Amino acid sequence: MAEPPPRFRVRVLNAVSAAGLARLPRPQYRVGADEAEPDAILLRSADLHEVPIPASVKAIGRAGAGTNNVPVEAMSRRGVVVFNAPGANANAVKELVLAGMLLSARHLPDALRFVDALDRRAPDLDRRVEAGKKPFSGIELAGRTLGVIGLGRVGCLVADAAIRLGMQVIGYDPHITIDAAWSLPSQVRRAQGLGEVVCGSDFVTLHVPLMPATRGLIGAELLAVARPGAVLLNFSRDAVVDEPAVLAALQTGALRHYVSDFPTCGLLGHPRSIALPHLGASTGEAEENCAVMVADQLRDFLEHGNVRNSVNFPDASMPRESQHRVAIANANVPNMLGQISTAMAQVGLNIHNMLNKSRGETAYTLVDVDSPVPADAVARIAAIPGVLSVRDLSASG
Fold first, then answer.
1. Residue 139 has pLDDT above 80, yes or no
2. Same structural domain for residues 144 and 265?
3. N or C: which end of the chain has fewer CB within 10 A?
4. Measured distance CA(44)–CA(57) in Å, rounded
């Protein structure tokens, strides 16, 4: 007996964790790298900016936090929802930040290079080790002050871990969410500005997204007020720092170390730069967490129209009270709900429940109706100026 055709098709790019793919059950879903007309794309680091994205795509799921590899603005204009997995890799990044502080505090990269250069055949190896270790004498983290810029999931975890290590913590985030504020340890001193963090910290760690407002966030002006010998850690994005300013601070000794997860041509090989090869989320646990989280979000959206953790659409979740549902993405303009309601009334649809949410220039509407949705209703709504996409999510549709 032939297998029934799938209801949804998902194109997978990169090696997405099998645990995530298992959240898209067969035969309802067909998942693979060669799906020609997918309903959704699931990816990790593949760059979609130069890749044609089929008109069939309704959603893109990034199994990670950053979405720089996705043309978000172009997808918004098409009504395509872009999901990410905020916080799913937070513990992995937190642990790497702690490792970064220890690498700097104990001069571990230089110490490792020293040991690697030793001649294991030398009869006086022990003496050479003892004689050569003095330049690598470091400091302890306990009692030092850590400044955390960006108090999202990662920033809060880093702050908590630092406190447990005996550090003092200063935090700054003018856009802190209510959930983050609740999870922030009470011992964290809230700063009123970036300058207060930089001038008051022995270590400064960055946990902000890359956007126009944060590009070059840490520049010469802020570095000029840093504590002598401070350490700057960047596990966010390379461009949130002004690289020439960081290089100048390293050369003058204003910064003792710049620890980052992003090797760049300008800083690679500098003796005070400690660069890791973008390892922030590179753990099996983080990859699995991200894949599971974003797959669940994709499934909830494809089957029920609910939006959670989108970078370009508002969060919009409504329990189903009918098997007949319509999901509409549209420009956030006046009288849109009135036009949608009118179009439904014209074909005899009775609205049972409705949810409308907006985010900037984009709005999203879920409508549960009491009877099957005729194709004419979808066509009428799609013809309304400003409507970007319409989906009939009836259980039988």
1. yes
2. yes
3. N
4. 17
Instruction: Name the burial class of residue 195, with classes exposed (0-12), middle (13-18) and buried (19+) by CB atoms within 10 angstroms of its CB.
Output: middle
pLDDT confidence band for 232 (50 / 70 / 90): very high
Residue type, 115: V
> What DSSP state is assigned to residue 241?
B
Strand-pair category, 324-331 with 387-392 = antiparallel
Rounded-to-integer distance, Cα 238 and Cα 355, Å: 39
Residue 155 tokens, joined:
């920033």
Overall pTM surpassing 0.85 (yes/no): no
* pLDDT (0 to 100) of residue 179: 80
Give the pairing type, strands 351-359 and 362-369: antiparallel
Same domain, 358 and 241: no
Q: Decide if 298 contacts 279 (C-beta within 8 A).
A: no
Provide the domain limits for residue 29. 1-89+282-312
Pairing mode of beta strands 81-83, 145-149 = unpaired
CA-CA distances (angstroms) from residue 171 to 50, 198, 383?
38, 10, 49
In contact, 111 and 136? CB cutoff 8 Å: yes
Q: Which two tokens stand for residue 257?
A: 């170390």
Q: What DSSP element (H or E) covers 330?
A: strand 324-331
Judge if 168 and 178 occupy the same domain: yes
